[in-house]
Amino acid sequence: MDPDARCPCGSGLTYGECCGPLHNGATSAPTAERLMRSRFSAFAMGDPAYLLRSWHPDARPASIEIDPDTRWLWLEIVRTERGSERDSDGVVEFRAKYRVDAPEGRSSGVQHEVSTFARVAGEWVYVDGEA
Ligand SMILES: [Zn+2]
């Protein structure tokens, strides 16, 4: 993705200033919310490798399939609990709007989820989520 394009997570920053350095491993997320945003961007861009890498090793699936018909349009962070630089776990509630352009028709929706994050060896990872 073009580093000068707007980041898919909706931060208003460019991809190169925002989720890009997390995706390419140049830096790691300082907070659970940052990790959440970078995972949304990875969904939006179709980067399953990053999604797996940022998943808790005990909870991580063997593989992820990203539905090519689903487009992730925007992310809204509703609420966060802990998840700061000083914490070892955190919760992020978010709403993510998507659109499905399937051959059988078009639909759209909002995924509303409360996700749990933890820090493993200093790095924030996604544990699980409840829709
Ligand atoms: Zn971003």
What descriptors fit this protein?
alpha+beta, Nuclear Transport Factor 2, Chain: A, binds zinc ion, 131 residues, globular, 4-stranded antiparallel beta sheet
Structural class, by secondary structure, is alpha+beta
CATH class: Alpha Beta
Number of strands: 4
What would the average pLDDT be, to the nearest integer? 96
- What portion of residues belong to β-strands? 35-45%
The ligands bound in this entry are: zinc ion
Radius of gyration: 14 Å
- The succession of helices and strands, N to C, reads HHHEEEE
Number of domains: 1
What is the 3D form?
globular
Task: Give the biggest sheet.
Answer: 4 strands, antiparallel
Report strand order across the widest sheet: 1-2-3-4
Distance between the termini: 29 Å
How large is the count of helical segments? 3
Classify the fold: give the CATH topology.
Nuclear Transport Factor 2, Chain: A
Helix content: 10-25%
Label the CATH architecture.
Answer: Roll
Report low-confidence residues grouped into runs of 5 or more.
none
Could you please describe the fold and organization of this structure?
With about 130 residues, this protein is an alpha+beta fold. It has one domain (about 20-130): Nuclear Transport Factor 2, Chain: A, CATH 3.10.450.50. The protein has helices at about 20-25, 30-45, 50-55; strands at about 70-80, 90-100, 105-120, 125-130. Strands 1-2-3-4 form a four-stranded antiparallel β-sheet, covered by helices on one side. The model has no long low-confidence stretch (mean pLDDT about 95). The protein binds zinc ion. Zinc ion (ZN) binds near residues 7, 11, 18, 19 and 37.
